[in-house]
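Dear Dr. L.,

I hope this message finds you well. Following up on our conversation about the binding site, I have prepared a predicted three-dimensional model of the protein together with 2-acetamido-2-deoxy-beta-D-glucopyranose. For your records, I am including the exact sequence and ligand specification that went into the calculation, followed by the structure tokens. Please feel free to forward this to your student if that is useful.
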Amino acid sequence: MLLTFYLLFIGLHVSEGCTLENRGEVLNIAAHAGGSVLLPCYCTDQHTTPERFSWKKDNKDTWEEISIESGQYRDRVQLFNGHSPGNVSLLISHLTEEDGGDYQCSVEGAHLIIRLTVKGCPLENRGEVLNITAHTGGSVLLPCYCTDLHTKVKTFRWKKQNRSTHKQEEISSESGQYRDRVQMFNGHSPGNLSLLISHLTEEDGGDYICAVKGSRLTIKLTVKGCPLENRGEVLNITAHAGGSALLPCYCPDLHTKVKTFRWKKQNRSTHKQEEISSESGQYRDRVQVFNGHSPGNLSLLISHLTEEDGGDYICAVKGSRLTIILTVKGCPLENRGEVLNITAHAGQSVLLPCYCTDQHITPETFSWKKDNKDTWEVISSGSVSTETEFSWLMVTLQETSLYSYHTWLKRMEEIISALLKVLI
Ligand SMILES: *[C@@H]1O[C@H](CO)[C@@H](O)[C@H](O)[C@H]1NC(C)=O
Ligand SMILES: *[C@@H]1O[C@H](CO)[C@@H](O)[C@H](O)[C@H]1NC(C)=O
Ligand SMILES: *[C@@H]1O[C@H](CO)[C@@H](O)[C@H](O)[C@H]1NC(C)=O
Ligand SMILES: *[C@@H]1O[C@H](CO)[C@@H](O)[C@H](O)[C@H]1NC(C)=O
Ligand SMILES: *[C@@H]1O[C@H](CO)[C@@H](O)[C@H](O)[C@H]1NC(C)=O
Ligand SMILES: *[C@@H]1O[C@H](CO)[C@@H](O)[C@H](O)[C@H]1NC(C)=O
Ligand SMILES: *[C@@H]1O[C@H](CO)[C@@H](O)[C@H](O)[C@H]1NC(C)=O
Ligand SMILES: *[C@@H]1O[C@H](CO)[C@@H](O)[C@H](O)[C@H]1NC(C)=O
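The resulting structure of the complex is given below.
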């Protein structure tokens, strides 16, 4: 017991002073900009108290002492030898890329070198070209971030390359094309430099560059306008006079916001295109579009069709157009223009035939007239607003006679009113 104590005492005596761990060596340490790093330097026996120690940094081939009170490291370095005297490790906080370099820890004549590498922000996908597609009116996130999202990036830039001049123009939310339309998120997540562009226009398409010190990334943004569905084609649509017709015209993505589009009708004789307006002209109060609900749906609804509405319609957006041939079927009468000779006997009934060649057509208006001393006197007229399965003009005029004009007229009115009841 005594012997053991004696040996221990001798041991302590011999190891008096600090033997520097890793002395004479070069340690490589890497850290991230914005973070902190502990540069290790301690005595093999941490209970020893070194009489002298110093921390120096290599500055262009001269070793400069690190000062806690002034210069580059002011308020950013910390020692722990108060608690553990043999541990003179140095903690450097709020690292910047300039902190990288060789550090020398000297303790009683022995020293060790620490080679510190401060990593900036090596961008994810750096050096690559990313292709991103978005739609006009929408928004797009151009991704750009450090491989480590905690990295604090002091300076970075978003630029757009002008394809004709090849000059790079800085993107600013304060002025120019992107005013109030761009947003960044590096406040929350310092290494996330992604750019959000809102209210996209086709002019926003192009090459964007995200650049940090030593690393850059190119993003090719394509802003799709509205390439119309069935563009360049000719659609044939048939509708009936008095009815309505939906002329289809829409973007493949119904969410696409289309800034300007036009509906025009082509005059077949002059080949001039005339704009269709619900405010004036032939289509006044008869046309309707639905792009309020579904911005990419530019379809045109024409109501109360007349035969004159037939023709070539053009739906045009920037860079794309579509032609629709509308045929409005009216009621071309069977035997029209002819004179039919019908003979009947007094007291009997007679059918005066008059019907559309296509019996599914409902004429908007009709009238029956009788020749009365060389003037055509209207004896009956009406209008029909709903379609009907049967050809309502083929009505047997029973118990009427061409010779008892008043009876005939009365009967005709009854038939018409009965017919209208059926139709409604
Ligand atoms: C020296 O002190 C620092 C800070 O307290 C600590 O993180 C480190 O582990 C210590 N080194 C040793 C070898 O104990
Ligand atoms: C991006 O688009 C360019 C040009 O359109 C093309 O050369 C490149 O291969 C595309 N890259 C990817 C990853 O799709
Ligand atoms: C590219 O530069 C030319 C000349 O300065 C300019 O007229 C044009 O508007 C620029 N294009 C874009 C997309 O900024
Ligand atoms: C960057 O921030 C944006 C917006 O908050 C987010 O959508 C995106 O996922 C973030 N990127 C990464 C890599 O975290
Ligand atoms: C549409 O009608 C035009 C002319 O009547 C014709 O040339 C064309 O082939 C038709 N198209 C279709 C898809 O039916
Ligand atoms: C076509 O143009 C001619 C000459 O301007 C005009 O008389 C005619 O009414 C037009 N046709 C249609 C269907 O608008
Ligand atoms: C466009 O809107 C009309 C009217 O609401 C609708 O009938 C039509 O189906 C829509 N077109 C598309 C492609 O959604
Ligand atoms: C109908 O009668 C008129 C006059 O009587 C006559 O001129 C005409 O040819 C007749 N039409 C037919 C189709 O029989």
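In brief: The longest strand covers residues 110-119.

With kind regards,
A. P.
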